[in-house]
Amino acid sequence: MGIINVAAKVLEIMGPMTTMKLQKLVYYSQAHSLATTGLSLFPEDFEAWTNGPVSLELFNRHRGRFTIRKEELLISLPERCATLEYEQVKIIEEVCAKLGNLTGNQLSERTHKEDPWIRARIGISANQGSEEIISKKSIHDYYVNHPIV
User: Fold this and answer.
1) Which residues contact 16 (CB under 8 A, 6 or more apart)?
2) pLDDT by residue (tens digit) across 2-60?
3) What residues have CB less than 8 Å from 131, skipping those under 6 apart?
4) Burial of 57: CB neighbours in 10 Å, binned 0-12, 13-18, 19+
C-alpha cells in the first residue's frame, strides 16, 4: 500500500484538513506502525523539511493547496479501489484519535521536539530547506521508546 492510500484513510476518518496536518498525521501513522509492528505502512520516505516531516510524494499530490479533501487526493482508479488491511486501519484510527484534535502547526511543533526530525537536521539552520531523509530506523528506534498512542 502506498502513502496516498494512507493519507486518503486519514482524510476519510477526519474529513478535510490542512495539508500540513495531513502530512503530520500520515507521518505519525507510519511511526506508530513501525514502533508497534516493526512494519511500514508504505515504502515512501519523509524528508526533514523546515515545518517538520514531509513526504515529497504526498506533497506533489497536494502542491498548491492549503486544505485537501479525500476526493482531491485520489486521482487514479487503482488508488480509489485500494483497501488497507484491518491492522493498518486500526493504526491510522489510533493516531487520528490521539492526535487528530491538534492543528498542523501544533503537530509540526511536536515533531520539532522529537529525535528523528532533530537528527535528520543536524547542521541545518532552522529556516534552511532540507531534503534529508528521516530514516525508518530512526523513526522506529525513537517511537518504540516514546509511544504515540
Assistant:
1) 67, 68, 69
2) 999 999 999 999 999 999 999 999 999 999 999 999 999 999 999 999 999 999 999 99
3) 47, 56
4) middle
DSSP string over the chain: --HHHHHHHHHHHH-SEEHHHHHHHHHHHHHHHHHHHS--S-S--EEEETTEEE-HHHHHHHTT-SEE-HHHH--SHHHHH----HHHHHHHHHHHHHHTTS-HHHHHHHHTTSHHHHHHTTT--TTS----EE-HHHHHHHHHHS---
Q: Quote the radius of gyration of the chain (alpha carbons, Å).
A: 14
